[in-house]
Design a protein that fits this description.
single chain, 8 helices, mainly alpha, 138 residues
Length: 138
């Protein structure tokens, strides 16, 4: 990862933004996996650059807190449960309350259906429990 950071300063800034939002560094998730082709690193770099270098820093119209709640909603509706876990952490780390997350799931249920909402809400319950166990200030 250091090679990409040295060649592309925007990549280092994107990684720093991700760490600030998530409360943890992403580098461990960006290392090559067993059997992963070399261009897998390109995918991860481009996705990180676009997501945390281009989209999240755009706070002039939508603040981080609002983007976080939107991201929770999108991940829940798409049924991408592991990314939803990260989006919930970002939301809670950036001022979204657990009660607001629950209200989002009430709205998700109304428009995307109970099955989809319950799948995502199960992840939210786990993240709430993790936060409580860690005594996070959420």
């Amino acid at each position: 990862m250091a090679d990409n950071e040295e060649k592309e300063p925007g990549y280092a800034a994107a990684l720093d933004t991700a760490a600030r939002l998530l409360g943890m560094r992403l580098e461990q998730f960006l290392e090559p996996g067993p059997g992963e082709p070399a261009n897998g690193a390109d995918f991860k770099r481009l996705a990180t650059l676009h997501t945390f270098g281009d989209a999240w820093p755009r706070t002039d119209v939508l603040d981080t807190r609002t983007r976080a709640l939107i991201s929770v909603t999108i991940a829940a509706i798409l049924g991408t449960l592991e990314p939803l876990r990260g989006q919930l952490r970002i939301a809670l780390n950036n001022g979204v309350t657990p009660e607001e997350v629950v209200e989002a799931f009430i709205h998700i249920e109304a428009y995307a259906g109970a099955a989809r909402a319950f799948d995502g809400y199960r992840i939210a319950q786990q993240v709430f429990q993790e936060a409580r166990a860690a005594e996070e200030p959420w």
